[in-house]
Amino acid sequence: DQSMGLGLRALRGFSSLEIIDRLGLRALSERALFEGTKGGFKAAGAASRTFASASKLGKPERQRPRSTTGLFDLTPDEDQQMLVEAVTALAGDFRPAAVQADTACAAPPELLASANEMGVATLGVPEALGGFVEERSAVTSVLVASAMAHGDMGLAIAALAPGAVATAIGLWGTPEQQARYLPAFTEETPVCAALTMLEPQPLFDPWALSTTAKASGDGFVLDGTKALVPRGAEAELFVVAANLESRGPSLFLVESGTQGVSVEAEPAMGVRAAATATVRFDGVKLDADALLGDASPEVYAECVHRARIAWCAVSVGCAQAVLDYVIPYVNERTAFGEPISNRQAVAFMVSDIGIELEGMRLTTLRAASRADMGKEFARESALARVLCARKGMDIGSNGVQLLGGHGYIKEHPVERWYRDLRAAGVMEGALLV
Question: What's the confidence (pLDDT) of residue 50?
Answer without folding.
Answer: 76
